[in-house]
TrEMBL record:
<comment type="function">
    <text>DNA-dependent ATPase involved in processing of recombination intermediates, plays a role in repairing DNA breaks. Stimulates the branch migration of RecA-mediated strand transfer reactions, allowing the 3' invading strand to extend heteroduplex DNA faster. Binds ssDNA in the presence of ADP but not other nucleotides, has ATPase activity that is stimulated by ssDNA and various branched DNA structures, but inhibited by SSB. Does not have RecA's homology-searching function.</text>
</comment>
<feature type="domain" description="RecA family profile 1">
    <location>
        <begin position="71"/>
        <end position="217"/>
    </location>
</feature>
<dbReference type="Pfam" id="PF13541">
    <property type="entry name" value="ChlI"/>
</dbReference>
<keyword id="KW-0067">ATP-binding</keyword>
<keyword id="KW-0238">DNA-binding</keyword>
<feature type="region of interest" description="Lon-protease-like">
    <location>
        <begin position="353"/>
        <end position="454"/>
    </location>
</feature>
<keyword id="KW-0863">Zinc-finger</keyword>
<dbReference type="InterPro" id="IPR014721">
    <property type="entry name" value="Ribsml_uS5_D2-typ_fold_subgr"/>
</dbReference>
<keyword id="KW-0479">Metal-binding</keyword>
<dbReference type="InterPro" id="IPR020568">
    <property type="entry name" value="Ribosomal_Su5_D2-typ_SF"/>
</dbReference>
<dbReference type="InterPro" id="IPR027417">
    <property type="entry name" value="P-loop_NTPase"/>
</dbReference>
<dbReference type="InterPro" id="IPR004504">
    <property type="entry name" value="DNA_repair_RadA"/>
</dbReference>
<keyword id="KW-0378">Hydrolase</keyword>
<feature type="binding site">
    <location>
        <begin position="100"/>
        <end position="107"/>
    </location>
    <ligand>
        <name>ATP</name>
    </ligand>
</feature>
<dbReference type="Pfam" id="PF13481">
    <property type="entry name" value="AAA_25"/>
</dbReference>
<feature type="short sequence motif" description="RadA KNRFG motif">
    <location>
        <begin position="254"/>
        <end position="258"/>
    </location>
</feature>
<comment type="function">
    <text>Plays a role in repairing double-strand DNA breaks, probably involving stabilizing or processing branched DNA or blocked replication forks.</text>
</comment>
Length: 454
């Protein structure tokens, strides 16, 4: 039997060491180095096209104009949201990593896409049996004759099947369940993940077949496995959302072939994920009566305008220290806005409990939501409803000034489209829109807002 070879890997950054040490010299983390059994083969595995492909394809330098990029037509995934996030479809030969919390819907999303594709697709699952996948497919009511399901975890066997089937696109659920014969450590270990990804990259680049990998994420939200996994692939997508709510957001954290500003929005239904092409209409509850403490913000998620409802509740504090709680909004920012209201506009909120909630279970980082937060708090404090067709898009500064926000025109147009009558924005925004059906109310100080809405 061959001698068992072991190496030490840092679980955090993937650096390799000949012997154990307490601290990783590369990333400076302590106690992250573990021993893993490896057995490097003499030859690497992916060699379908030819073992001497490197000689055949020895590349020559070319001027940028001489390079032909036309054959890189992207594969249309039919799913509009997925296409948008990728920058217009899947690039042949690219490796896409989709990460997300357990149960968020990664397998559902990719199975759904695989079953919609017009191309020959191989869906490899190391997590579920073929029967379970069939049950899921029945649930999402999708069906076609071009998607093949394989339950396998050994890369060598997967490549054998690929050689027979010659698929146009490969989906792997998930990278953590794969293992290669050439490495002896268990599936999910750093060395296995690295080796399997390397084999898949080689396969993808040599055959121009795109591969989509599902990756688990760790407790602190990073994709499990070495950080270099994210460097190795072309695109890193993140599927996120609150599991108790129906909305799911797909973001690109890295994209070699497109912008990372685009997002895709889905709604999880009993029968799979539905693409949400007009999210604003769902996020704003259409109530007839006007309620105090509600305000609508015109925010941007990536490049997409999104109208979001903010709810605030201000009540007299029963305990000595007033409570402040924010869902979907940064609690520190809430405290700051309360301090601004207290100091600049004279509201005595220091003795009040303040609760803030962004409806729909989404989290907003866009500073343009500030003004709506302030308006909702004032409205709840006075117990007087804001006019239903008002909306807000501006940042609030420490001295109570209303600051301009980016892409304000896009927000105004979205608000107009949804039938709002007035939008409050900063006086310092340059707006060249003319003849809008919506009134653009320019304000410069928090006092201006107070005089308008109370
Ligand atoms: P899944 O795709 O298995 O999550 P992941 O692969 O990210 O771990 O999604 C599982 C969740 O989605 C599960 O809690 C049930 C829910 N679900 C629906 O609500 N509707 C559906 O049609 C399907 C297939 C799943
Ligand atoms: Mg899954």
């Amino acid at each position: 039997m061959a001698k068992v070879k072991t190496t030490f890997f840092c679980q955090n950054c993937g650096s390799q060491y000949a012997k154990w040490q307490g601290q990783c010299t590369a990333c400076k983390e302590w106690n992250t180095i573990v021993e893993e059994v490896i057995q490097k083969p003499e030859k690497s595995d992916w060699k379908i096209s030819s073992s001497n492909s490197s000689q055949k394809r020895a590349s020559k330098p070319l001027t940028i104009n001489a390079i032909d990029a036309s054959e890189d037509a992207r594969l249309d995934t039919i799913d509009k949201e997925f296409n948008r996030v990728l920058g217009g479809g899947v690039v042949p030969g690219s490796l896409i990593l989709l990460g997300g919390e357990p149960g968020i819907g990664k397998s559902t999303l990719l199975l759904q896409i695989a079953l919609k594709l017009q191309y020959k697709t191989l869906y490899v699952s190391g997590e579920e049996s073929q029967k379970q996948i069939k049950m899921r497919a029945e649930r999402i009511q999708a069906n076609n004759d071009t998607c093949y399901i394989l339950t396998e975890t050994k890369t060598q066997n997967i490549f054998k099947q690929i050689e027979d089937l010659k698929p146009d696109i490969v989906v792997i659920d998930s990278i953590q369940t794969l293992h290669s014969d050439y490495i002896e450590s268990s599936s999910g270990s750093i060395s296995q993940i690295k080796e399997c990804t390397t084999e898949l990259i080689k396969f993808a680049k040599e055959t121009a077949t795109p591969v989509i990998l599902i990756g688990h994420i760790t407790k602190d939200g990073n994709i499990a496995g070495p950080k270099i996994l994210e460097h190795m692939v072309d695109t890193v997508l993140q599927f996120e959302g609150d599991r108790n709510h129906v909305f799911r957001i797909l973001r690109a954290n890295k994209n070699r072939f497109g912008s990372t500003n685009e997002i895709g929005i889905y709604e999880m239904q009993g029968s799979g994920l539905r693409e949400v092409s007009n999210p604003s209409e769902i996020l704003i509850s259409k109530k007839d009566e006007e309620l105090s403490g509600n305000a609508v913000a015109a925010t941007l998620e990536g490049l997409r305008p999104l109208m979001i409802e903010v709810q605030a509740l201000v009540s007299t504090a029963v305990y000595g220290t007033p409570q402040r709680s924010a869902t979907g909004f940064n609690a520190k920012r809430l405290n700051m806005l309360l301090a601004v209201l207290e100091k600049r506009a004279g509201f005595r909120l220091g003795t009040k409990d303040v609760f803030l909630n962004i409806t729909g279970g989404i989290t907003v980082d866009d500073p343009a939501i500030d003004l709506a937060v302030v308006a909702a708090i004032l409205s709840s404090n006075e117990d007087e409803a804001l006019q239903k067709d008002y909306c807000f898009a501006a940042e609030v500064g420490l001295s109570g000034e209303i600051r301009p926000v980016q892409r304000v025109e896009q927000r105004i147009l979205e608000a107009e489209k949804l039938g709002f009558s007035t939008i409050f924005v900063s006086k310092y925004n340059t707006i060249s829109l003319k003849n809008t059906g919506i009134k653009i109310q320019l304000i410069s100080k928090i006092e201006d807002l107070v005089s308008f809405i109370t």
